[in-house]
Amino acid sequence: MKPASRLSPLVSPPGRIRVLGIDPGLRITGFGVLDKTGSTLAYVTSGCIKTPAAGDLATRLKVILDGLREVIASVKPDQVAIEKVFVNANPQSTLLLGQARGTAICAAVLHELQVSEYTALQVKQAVVGNGHADKDQVQDMVKRLLKLTTGDCRVSHETREAGLIGRISGKLIARHPPQVIVDVQGIGYEIDVPMSTFYQLPATGSDVTLFTHLLVREDAHLLYGFASEQERHVFRQLLKISGVGARTALSVLSGMSIGDLYDAVSTQDSARLIKVPGIGKKTAERLLLELKDKLDVTVVAANSAGAHGGDILNALQALGYNEKEAAWAVKQLPAGTAVADGIRQALKLLSKQ
Q: What is the pTM of this model?
């Protein structure tokens, strides 16, 4: 696919420098175009060039070359910036990526453009101020620097997340916090887990089941595991918040229980979140505000009371109490409380309010 064919010629205004950034890849080569005037940056366009999966290497490289040359002809950049790639654990993948990168450089040189190379660490350091920032942080900062709306971003959380692996059951063969390895019929899955889940794991060599979330990126498939569906649900809600990546979400779940997080959200108590490593005051306040409409109070409350929590909650609401009142009362009940006893105890608690 060559999105450049849909681009009309774009001419850089006088006094501006137009830069074409290229993220090379044999399957997908991404590009973005910015105009720089003094210290001001302005977004122009972006897109990607996809090669046919069934094509041979030469054909795929030709698609990249033709696609980038068409992009260059359309947007007329003054300079080209290309990511510098280092050797990774898979020599074959490194070789293929290097060939795609060489093709991208050739496309620029054929148009007599100056080519600058930057490592991923340099890019992250320049954009975020942290060379080890995750892609979610980089994306959020790019949106801020270029004043982009959600609709302007070509890649969103939803397009990078995949629910292809929802649960893993197998033998726990290694524990290296925050990562564990689960053997499933001879295949070892590396899974990152929050400490709340890690502490619940059985001994190495035991059978284990984890609810999982698969995050698909251009450079990796990352699998995250959780002891409960509720914990995974909260993780996913955290990921939907702009600027919150998987690392931050895991830190939140590692630093406090689901119940404590809900209490903090319901009371907007930022002091609890600030205790989580890596969470500052401003981040804590933003998380609490955005989570207020994302966390299901009834689910949290019902689960805290055990198997009968949902029945007690429904009974209280049928008696005329609102969702918040019923949820609060159910959360005060000991786990395993029977329905009849739970209703009586909850009514006594509510009568004192």
A: 0.45
